[in-house]
Amino acid sequence: MQQALAGAARASVLRHVVHHPRSSHTEIVASTGVSRGSATTALRDLEQLGYLVVDGPREGRVVRYRAVDDQLAADLAALSDWLLA
């Protein structure tokens, strides 16, 4: 169950950042309802997977994120190919 929730948190965070580039951690938490801890974990995981990057320099303590569209498109195409094969 915990992994399913972690997956849901990652999906919510990713969806938010795709639709709202340059989102901060605080904005993501407020908009998605994901807990701060889950958002932190999701952001770290998504960054390690190559789906998100930090967008620009830190603004004080604020870090902003954006999606890596090419990586998302490639992986979604591969998933689609696999599902439809």
TrEMBL record:
One of its GO terms (molecular function) is DNA-binding transcription factor activity. Residues 10-61 form the HTH marR-type domain. InterPro entries: HTH_MarR-typ (IPR000835), WH-like_DNA-bd_sf (IPR036388), WH_DNA-bd_sf (IPR036390). Pfam families: MarR_2. This is HTH marR-type domain-containing protein. It comes from Agromyces mediolanus (Corynebacterium mediolanum).
